[in-house]
Amino acid sequence: MVHDDYKEMIPARSLASLDASDDRLLSEHLATCADCRRELDEWNAVAASLALSAPAQEPSPSVRTNILLTIASEKPQATRANVVPFNAARRSVWTSLGSFGAIAAALLFVVLGASVFVLWRENSRLKSQLAQQTTRMDELDQRVAQQQRMVQQFTAPGTTMVELRPTSAAPGAKAMVAVDKDGRATLLARGLPSAPPGKAYQVWYIVGNKPMPGRVFRMDSAGNGLLEDQMPPVAVKAAVIAITMETEQGAAAPTGAILLSSSL
User: Residue 164: beta bridge partners?
Assistant: First the structure.
């Protein structure tokens, strides 16, 4: 049972409408949850105020008669007082119903208020779940679209395949880059660990001794690094492609060790 389930029991507990098993479970939870104890105190205060919201009730005429008869029976017959009856104010059925109706209306207000609050909270929870699911679906659609583009580029006529081999700084890692005639590069990497917070992997295109920065990428939950990039024109046919770890914003020049390279 989650915390919200216990909180939904609290209004019913203040109205003494929980069954024995739920009451026992809630009591065990209240022993360790200060937040729920505080909320229960608030609901108990509301329930207690209902008793004060109804007007005072006048005793019925039969109560007075019974009291006088009891007193008379306890005295000697000779000293019995001559009791003169008086006519008590008669109360209409509608007056009595009005008093009980006020209590019932107050109880109904509390119950309806609790129900509306529970429904509002459930609606908020469902909206949050729907937003999360929508975000996940959007991410999945983007990933599928990217993978479809990669398949098309890896299989397109005239595409050059470049293998990146690991250095001693990244044993077990490997990567392939597909480069078309216009310099559009698609990279698929595996075996690299997830980059720590604030870090990412960056691609470099090295012509001569001059490294030109490419885009950054991260490894996904499946252990794949996917990247689409546009190579500088001078690097399309003459560049060494390398990967280093840099800041997540990318660097203007390499600062980390080369992890994979198309030529060592």
Answer: 175
